[in-house]
Amino acid sequence: MLDPALVSQLKDLYGSLEGEYTLLLQPSTDTHQQELKEMLEGLASASPRIKVVEQGKPFDSIQFELLKNGAATGVRFRGVPGGHEFTSLVLAVLNADGKGKLPDEAVRRRVKALRGPIELRTYVSLSCTNCPDVVQALNQMALLHGDFRHEMVDGGLAEAEVSRLGIQAVPAVFAGDKLLHVGKSSFDELLDVLEGHFGHQQGEQPQGGAAPEPKDYDVVVVGGGPAGVSAAIYSARKGLKTALVAQKIGGQVRETVGIENLISVPYTEGLKLAADLDKHVRTYAVDVLEDRRVEEIRPGEKKEIVIKGGEVLRAPTLILATGARWRELGVPGEKEHIGRGVAFCPHCDGPFYKGKRVAVVGGGNSGVEAAIDLAGITSHVTLFEFLDVLKADEVLVRKLKSLPNVTIVTNARTTEVVGGASGVTAIRYMDRPTEKIHEVALDGVFVQIGLVPNSALVKGLVDTNRFGEIVIDERCRTSAPGIYAAGDVTTVPFKQIVIAMGEGAKAALTAFEDRIRGR
After folding, report:
1. Angle at 192 between CA 111 and CA 253, to 5 degrees
2. Segment 89-137, tens digit of pLDDT
3. Can you say how many angstroms the Cα of residue 52 is from the centroid of all Cα atoms in its chain?
4. How many Å apart are CA 364 and CA 126, to the nearest integer?
5. What secondary structure letter does DSSP report for 272?
6. Got the DSSP string for 321-374?
7. Residues contacting residue 95 through CB under 8 Å, at least 6 positions apart
8. Vertex 45, ends 44 and 51: CA angle to 5°?
9. Which of 151, 183, 219, 224 would be 317's cystine partner, CB 3.0–4.6 Å?
10. CB within 8 A of 394, min separation 6: which ones?
11. What is the rounded radius of gyration, in angstroms, for the C-alpha atoms of the chain?
């Protein structure tokens, strides 16, 4: 049964539903059938426009689909969508009614241009914080496209299927038995994948005909993390016509579970902070263009920002806040096993290694925290650090060393991830003082060696250092007039949320000051 307080919240959320919705439950002998039925009935109790109907031939697995006004929507769930996926179920009904946060018209045109039929399955873990983004994005695409079906599959209840497909990381998106995508992703990134795989309907283009006219702004901010949102808010507060272009509001923050160092906020979580950032920026006159990927930036007095799908924005001021992404090891065997033994998110993919042996590469805070978390799930964790000491905070190092099923190896340079068709089987590393190669048998490798700046878009447009960071002065100016940068993509020391927020504000204030002074 759903908590009464939750049902009360759902009643408020579903109070304005216009369509009639059926949660069509397939009969099943599975032991989780009753649990699923009670969950769906609890959801249905929140609105007279939602009902649960159990009919059809009995299945071994548990599943249901969403109907609107008696017709299939293309959205189906296989498993009990609890944990983080309960939100995906709640939003599926809301989005089917045309409500909630939906893609704008430019993005909808790209979805509708996809060549059907499209049938996808996304395998998830209910503890995965990245999975709902993928499930919700693909559900929205199914609701927009007339020949698109998407099914969420709880990997914990489909172990034989997961084993047959060799899934070792989630979310994992399949078309038939072909893996299309694995790991975290934005709506825009998934749409890119589907456009590449399925193509466009004959005579249809993503922009839906002739390219739209360029839109003019005073300021365009590229990037939706703490720095980008801060820059957009401060620009709008100065009365400037502002656009914020992002794949997803929140950026890298969305992957952070616990946040305890955002001053004045003793504790929050990444997804909540991302939602708060989104809510805050939308209280201002900012055009938030989400689910977008910038393909090109053309310099000039008015910079032209070219977005995939045909949109073009123009502005004399550009603020880059594109953040950073997980750094890869760059060794043989790594790329070949991403999603099949090589992972980057211990919270999402850790449950797949229950009772198994894993490695964590990286001895900073992220690596040590990952090793501590994985030690509670796996049989053994080996942490590898390149330097002769761990770089993490002492309180974390003490905790790690207190765990009985953890081995720490320092002065280790990872040289290869070993594996085959069935996944990862070992990791090879070189002991730096002796230069001897060692091999450790294991089932998975979690890479935690920091971030790489997302600056490829502006290579040659502004100066970058040898790490790829955009070089800025103390006021966030880059080497190019009218272009500013803020946050983790820059040379600013210490990649922290609170610093990124301040840098975004600084970039916007500098840009405004330069504008009024005619610089």
Report:
1. 105
2. 999 999 999 999 899 998 999 999 999 999 999 999 888 878 899 999 9
3. 32
4. 27
5. H
6. ---EEEPP---TTTGGGBTTTEES-HHHHGGGGTTSEEEEE--SHHHHHHHHHH
7. 102, 136, 139, 140, 143
8. 35
9. 219
10. none
11. 24
